[in-house]
Amino acid sequence: MNKEELKINVEQALQEIRPFLEADGGNISLIDITNDTVSVQLEGNCIGCSVNQMTLKNGVEATIKKHAPQIKRVIEVNGISF
């Protein structure tokens, strides 16, 4: 899979998870894909949410890996790594 196909797959994964984040007043944006790492930015209510680490690991990362199995980790641009 080339870089453009990978980006499309990651964006599809984010589209799948986005309605759950929006229901709680949040959102997520793709920032970058480098090697096997996806960088995202949480937005809205997700920024200060006490369960955002769990959301990133169990929701976002799992969904991205389903669409793009070569991705090994997802990091939040504020420096939190999962």
Defining traits:
alpha+beta; 82 residues; three-stranded mixed β-sheet; 45% helix; 2 helices; 26% strand; 3 strands; GMP Synthetase, Chain A, domain 3
Task: Write a structural description.
The chain is α+β, with helices and mostly antiparallel strands and 82 residues long. The protein has one domain: 2-Layer Sandwich (GMP Synthetase, Chain A, domain 3), CATH 3.30.300.130. Helix content is 45%, strand content 26%. It has 2 helices and 3 strands. The chain has helices at 3-23, 52-67; strands spanning 26-34, 37-44, 73-76. The protein has a 3-stranded mixed sheet with strand order 1-2-3, covered by helices on one side. A hairpin with a 2-residue loop joins strand 1 (26-34) and strand 2. Helix 1 packs antiparallel against helix 2. The chain is globular, with a radius of gyration of 12 Å. The chain starts with a helix and ends in a 6-residue tail after the last strand.
Distance between the termini: 24 Å
Query: Would you identify the regions where 5 or more consecutive residues have pLDDT less than 50?
Result: none
Structural class: alpha+beta
Main beta sheet, described?
Answer: 3 strands, mixed
Task: Indicate the CATH topology.
Answer: GMP Synthetase, Chain A, domain 3
What would you say the CATH architecture is?
2-Layer Sandwich
Give the oligomeric state of the chains in this entry, treating copies of one chain as homo and distinct chains as hetero: single chain
Helix content: 40-55%
**Strand order within the widest sheet?**
1-2-3
Q: Specify Rg, calculated over alpha carbons.
A: 12 Å
Overall number of strands? 3
- Count of domain modules: 1
Tally of helical runs = 2
Strand percentage: 25-35%
